[in-house]
Amino acid sequence: MSFRTRWGHFINEVSKIYIHGYVKPAASFHTLGEWEAFAVKVLRYQKEGYSIRSGKIDGPEELVDLINSFYGFQIDVEVDRYDLLTYKNVLDHVEDFINHRVWGLRKEFGGYVPDINKLRLAYFYSRGDLEPYLLVDEEFTEQIYGSTNNPKMLLHYTTESGVERIQRAIDSGKLFDISSYTVAERPFFRKESNLILEFEGNVRAGFRSDVKSFSVDSGQKCVNLYRLGYPGEDEDNICTDLENDCNGELKTSLWNEFIATPMRIVDVYKI
Length: 271
Known about the structure:
By secondary structure, this protein is of the alpha+beta class. The protein has seven helices and nine strands.
């Protein structure tokens, strides 16, 4: 199966499940060690005289396959999806990444979590560039909270079909994570989401302000690493205390965000 055929099949499958937004493949996420090993291999080809500059891969088929194995989704799906992202943009990113960016990731983001080496990240298009996203998996939740059992009452903007989909997931046991909140200072940007779902959820991660999360085909979510910063010098965006950290002042004047698995719907009401 070619890389393009593989991603075409992926889009067809996830479109049957997810309603809003674009879903990212879990296969795109890798540990820092895996990203560094990828960079070392591409650097080896670069040293042999091959190039990925000027919007093309000048090298053997093995180099093409290597880049596609890490950036196939971005090349075959996101380039077609976003007008501002081109094939050359992706290759320019790869070149900058292997030469510089990957070697500074631990220093740039390692201070936010106990052990970034065990977490998985990927790059996806966001606002004109490929930006780093962290997978909110069990490893992340365990590192931050010491447990994957973190029940909390939450709110979620949705539609009638969204409520039905969440209830079906609860009834069937085929659960998935959603974005939710407890405090908001701005109205939700999606006008058709005119219902507020009050639910009990198992929190996977909590943030003082929104983290621009995407759904992943594994049922999990991923969050933008650039959004782990927070106004001021005394705290970052991650809520390590789910009862006390996230419910106070919103320095961004937006809304807080909890990534959670719905366990029980409590109420639904119109905005």
